[in-house]
Design goal:
Elements lengths: L3 E5 L7 H13 L3 E6 L12 H13 L5 H17 L6 H13 L4 H20 L2 E2 L16 H12 L5 E2 L4 E3 L5 E3 L5 H11 L4 E6 L4 E2 L11 E2 L1 E3 H9 L10 H6 L4 E5 L8 E4 L13 E14 L9 H11 L13 E7 L7 H12 L3 E14 L9 H11 L6 E4 L5 E7 L3 H12 L2
Parallel strand pairs: 1-2, 1-7, 2-4, 3-4, 7-11, 10-12
Antiparallel strand pairs: 5-6, 8-9, 11-12, 13-14, 13-15, 15-17, 16-17
Length: 438
């Protein structure tokens, strides 16, 4: 029998009705024997996320302020779910423990983690799964860095080979037992970690969308779904702004060659998107997988005669950025020119200083800054080896009067990145989508 790990996001656990959907999904497939829940999400736009409320409670308690009113809102959510589902667990007792620890100075990580912890207690009771506290098997080191190898060993020893086990997402613990959380959205990471530890055949990530779309639906009307995408393609799209999974959740399952199936809790009949190892083929050569992009970049344009013959010129440029703690995105170059593209926010408050240092350290003839750049990645496995791909892309932009300020073709032969003006971003994305959607 195949082993599936099912992770459910906050929208999938927002209230009792969503809990019932989760139970129906788990009951529908006996291969789903491991479950990783998030904290309850918003029921409507008026709601605040449970995790946010817990952070607020801890912040108030830390300065001696009253947080009872906010905590009552949290408690009401959990009590209501327990009541509507007629659960036997005494959730009030667990809520009292959480309240007491926050009152007595518990850390922000502890407070935030209780959203998943309490959600897991309710869900385990409801569907009859064994509850295993993530603090006992998900390990961070003394400095708070996730320890993947120790975690894999602990997960494998504690729950490997078992059935019907629930492990709350988002948190783990340091060797001394202190609770530590992943970055926000970290339940995705937890699900992947558990999937790797139990050697799952599939990691199912249940959310409120039916997988990935070829483009942002806020920009493109009714974009087509992506049915199959490789890990590498997903990495490119996630980096450029496409959001469904937490970016770091890709790596644990990729290491173990475990496919991820992104599904919709509210439409379980939809197949969603299958994320597969690169060797599985993914999308066929020459076809577009997806489009993603971000606004708000700055170009540092550096010019110097005979630059290409000067050994170490690029190193000097990057050394200046390194000394300021700045990371770059791309470095398009010419014979006598070099451009460094980075996020505009990286330059805030030190634009003139960086320009002056670059002129001094490199002896450049000129250093200019150009703002308001947006980057768009057109991603597809083997796409750039397919005759006519670049022509189709550039023609689509030209036909829609979009000026291309930068071109960067990935060495992975998987993506072509173009830079356009911020205010032409939406038009460019729509143009590329229309050109490649078929």
């Amino acid at each position: 029998m195949k082993v599936k790990v099912a992770k459910f996001g906050g929208s999938s656990l927002a209230d009792a009705a969503q809990f019932r959907k989760v139970k129906a999904i788990m009951d529908a497939d006996p291969q789903r024997i491991f479950l990783v829940p998030s904290a309850p999400g918003k029921r409507s736009y008026k709601d605040e996320k449970i995790t946010d409320l817990l952070y607020k409670c801890q912040k108030l308690a830390a300065v001696g302020e009253h947080f009872e009113e906010i905590f009552d809102v949290i408690a009401e959510r959990y009590i209501e779910i327990a009541h509507e589902l007629e659960l036997e667990i005494d959730i009030r007792k667990h809520l009292q423990i959480v309240w007491s620890k926050i009152k007595n100075g518990a850390s922000a990580d502890y407070a935030a983690s209780r959203g998943e912890y309490l959600s897991g207690l309710l869900l385990a009771d409801y569907i009859g799964f064994e509850f295993v506290d993530a603090a006992t098997i998900v390990r961070f080191d003394e400095n708070g860095k996730f320890d993947s190898e120790v975690t894999q060993m602990l997960v494998s020893e504690a729950i490997g080979g078992k059935k019907n086990v629930l492990v709350p997402g988002f948190y783990g613990a340091k060797p001394n037992g202190e609770i530590k959380v992943f970055p926000r959205g970290g339940s995705d990471i937890s699900g992947a970690v558990i999937a790797r530890g139990v050697h799952a055949d599939v990691y199912e990530n249940w959310t409120d969308v039916s997988g990935f779309l070829m483009a942002d639906p806020r920009i493109v009307k009714d974009p087509k779904p992506i049915r199959i995408v490789t890990y590498s393609e997903l990495r490119e799209l996630a980096y450029m702004g496409a959001t469904v999974l937490h970016e770091d959740s890709i790596f644990p399952v990729r290491q173990a060659c475990i496919p991820i199936n992104v599904r919709n809790t509210n439409m379980p009949e939809e197949p969603g998107t299958m994320i597969v190892p690169d060797t599985d083929g993914g999308s066929s050569g020459g076809r577009l997988t997806g489009i993603a992009g971000r606004k708000g970049f700055t170009v540092i344009a550096i010019a110097k005669d005979n630059m290409h013959n000067e050994i170490g010129f690029g190193f000097k440029v990057l050394e200046v950025l390194k000394n300021h703690g700045i990371s770059f995105e791309h470095i398009p170059t010419g014979i006598d020119t070099m451009s460094v593209i980075l996020a505009e926010k990286e330059m805030e408050g030190r634009r003139k200083q960086i320009v002056d240092e670059l002129l001094l350290e490199t002896g450049a003839d000129s250093v200019e800054l150009h703002d308001d750049l947006a980057l768009i990645a057109t991603v597809g496995r083997g796409m750039v080896r397919y005759v006519g791909t670049s022509a189709k892309l550039f023609s689509a932009l030209a036909d829609n009067n979009v000026n291309i300020r930068m071109i960067d073709q990935g060495s992975s032969e998987m993506n072509i990145i173009v830079g356009v003006e911020n205010d032409e971003f939406d038009r460019a994305v729509c143009a590329i989508y229309e050109a490649f959607k078929d």
